[in-house]
Design a protein that fits this description.
Layout: H1 7-11, H2 36-47, H3 51-54, H4 57-72, H5 75-82, E1 83-84, E2 92-93, E3 97-99, H6 100-107, H7 112-121, E4 128-130, H8 135-152, H9 162-177, H10 184-200, H11 203-217, H12 221-226, H13 236-248
Parallel strand pairs: 3-4
Antiparallel strand pairs: 1-2
Helix pairs in contact: 2-4, 4-6, 7-8, 8-9, 8-10, 9-11, 11-13
């Protein structure tokens, strides 16, 4: 990832990659189903059951409405709603608040460009989410988006290339690592997810994970130790060894460090 060279910065706005400035909240961790048909099916079931029997009817109906909105609102309509976007001047926000319902709708989209827009919106200090998104939802979305970037390498107007997403993942992981309020189980889950991606990937994807993410995470000794159990795995020990060659050779980068990640 080339810091400062992202085409979206010059073309749209100077987005922040300081993921630690994103405030984590554990309240209001509402379950949001992933499957639209399942949402509709359960929403219809709500109509024929008492609220005591189902308990979550209103939540299901709300989720269904959110998903329908995600399918009908285009990325350009969302941009027009949030930004004054002149062609040859800096973009200016029309608001400083994004509703959590809207955010969830965008996160549920299959459009990788909309997912990329949402990913970068979450790290933009000019917006706050109301009510705040939970850390759990944010991490789930981050894994979904980055996995698609690793596999598809979209590199679109808003979506990241595989290497750019890998660099963002360094900052996200380091931000969580430096936040004492984040349970270590969250980091262990991310580590396991990266390991599964590496194991399931082809040689190109494995090289990207090592070069774009792991070798920069391993610049920090404590994170290297956290991943050291990979040396016991027949497949992951290769990733650990290759990623370690970077710091052993004196390699350093700003990824995972201030100002990209606040300590």
């Amino acid at each position: 990832m080339q810091i400062g060279g992202d085409k979206r910065i010059s073309r749209h706005l100077s987005r922040s990659v300081d993921f630690v400035r994103f405030r984590w909240h554990f309240a209001n961790q509402t379950y949001f189903p992933k499957s639209f048909p399942r949402i509709i099916r359960n929403s219809r079931q709500c109509a024929s059951r008492t609220e005591t029997e189902l308990g979550g009817c209103r939540q299901w109906r709300s989720a269904a409405k959110i998903t329908i909105r995600a399918m009908t609102e285009t990325l350009q309509q969302i941009i027009d709603r949030l930004w004054h976007a002149p062609k040859k001047a800096e973009w200016r926000p029309k608001t400083d608040v994004v509703s959590l319902d809207d955010l969830r709708a965008w996160m549920a989209s299959d459009d990788i460009e909309l997912l990329g827009f949402t990913h970068h919106l979450l790290s933009n200090r000019r917006f706050r989410i109301e009510p705040p998104i939970s850390m759990e939802e944010y991490v789930v979305f981050t894994k979904l988006y980055c996995e698609r970037c690793f596999k598809e390498n979209p590199d679109g107007e808003w979506s990241d290339s595989n290497y750019s997403a890998g660099g963002d993942l360094v900052n996200i992981f380091a931000g969580l690592w430096n936040d004492g309020a984040v349970p270590r189980t969250v980091l262990a889950d991310l580590k396991d997810w990266i390991g599964k991606l590496y194991k399931s990937g082809d040689s190109e994807m494995r090289t990207c994970i090592v070069n774009a993410t792991l070798e920069h995470l391993f610049e920090q000794k404590k994170i290297r130790v956290f991943f050291s159990d990979w040396q016991k795995d027949e497949t992951l020990r290769t990733a650990y060894s290759e990623a370690s060659e970077w710091y052993q050779g004196g390699g350093k980068s700003p990824l995972g460090r201030p100002p990209f990640v606040k300590r």
